[in-house]
Specification:
Number of helices: 17
Helix content: 40-55%
CATH class of the largest domain: Alpha Beta
CATH topology of the largest domain: Rossmann fold
Radius of gyration: 21 Å
Order of helices and strands: EHHEHEHEEHHEHEHEHHEHEHEHEHEHHH
Structural class: alpha/beta
CATH superfamily of the largest domain: Glycogen Phosphorylase B
Amino acid sequence: MKIIFDYQIFSWQLYGGISRYFYEIANRIAATKGNDVEVFAPLYVNEYFRRGGGLRPRGLWISPSRRYVRAKYWINRIASDWALRPRNDVDIFHETYFSQTDHCPCSAKRIVTVCDMIHEIFPDLFPQDNTSEIKTSVVKRADHIICISENTQRDLINFFNVPKDKTSVVHLGYSLTKEGAGEGSSVVGSPYILSVGNRKSYKNAERLLRVYAESSVLRNNFRLVFFGGEPFTESEYDMMKKLSLSSDNVMHLTGGDGLLTALYSGATAFVYPSLYEGFGMPPLEAMSLNCPVVCSNTSSIPEVVGDAAELFNPEDEGGMLKAILNVVTSPARTADLIERGRMRCKQFSWDKCATDTLKVYAKILQQ
C-alpha cells in the first residue's frame, strides 16, 4: 500500500498533539511490511521528524521564522499541485489538517482525521476564524473520516450530517514513558497539583484558580502548577491578585518531555478541568506515570479515563473542589486511582492506533 501524508501540520506546528499523532502513526505504518509511506512536506518546521529517528519527510526543514511564512505557504502549495496531484501510484492520501486546496493524487482515496469540534461547539471563541468552513468542505470531499473518539464522531455527525458509515473511530496513544522520570517536587520545591496544556477559555483554568484559592487546604499545602501554553497574561496576574494568590501559590512552567515527565511523576494529583476535548491525551500521560487523575466528566474525557479518575462537572466549582480534596487528602483513594490508571492506559498505544488506522485504509481500498 502506498500512503502519503501531506505537509500541512508539519509546515506550521513545531510540537503539538496533532503533529505528534501523525509522526507516531506514520513511523509505525512505515515499519509495517507491505506499506510504503511518504510524508510530502517540501518545507516544514516540525521538530518531531527533524529530531526523531526513522521516517523523514520528503522536503527541507526550515527555521520557523515569521519571514518565511508566505514563501513556505506558496512553495508547499505549488509543489503539491505540481508533484502530487498528477501521481497515479498512490493508494491513500491522508490530509494532516484542513486545506481549501485539494492536493489529492488522482489515484488515491482521501482520508482526513477530525480531532475535535471545538470551532463548532464554541464559535464565539473564533470570531475571525474560517476553520469550520474549510473543515466542512474537506469532510465533504473525503472518502473517509477518522475520528479520535466516539464523542468526536457523534459531534461530527450531528454538526455536519455525515453518514456514520463514512466515519471510523481510532483512539490515540500517548508518548511519555517512565524512562528518565525525575522528581517534580525538586523543580517545584513543595507538594503540588498539576494542570497541563493551554489555558484558553474552554480549558477552564480560571475556575480551577478560583477553586484552588477558596480552599485553605489546597492553598496551605499545595502549589498549583500550570505546565505548557503561554506565560501568564496580565489579566491572569490581575485575577490571581484579586484571589490573594502569589508566586508562592501558583506557578507556570514550560519545557520538554523530560520536565513534563518529572512533573507528572511528582505531582500529588493531575487536574484536567476542560469543558471539552476531542480526546484528551494528558490524563493518559498522567496515568502512565502513576499520577492520580481528577478530571471533567464531559465530552470524550470519560471515554478515555473510564473508571480510573475522580470525575467532576467542570461548571460546578463546589464539585470540582470536592473531587480534588477526595484525592489529595486520601492516600487510599490516591493508591486506588494509581492502580486503576496503570490498567486503563494499557488500552491505548500508538501501536494500536497505527494498526487500527491501517485497517481503515484497507477497508476504504476495498470499497
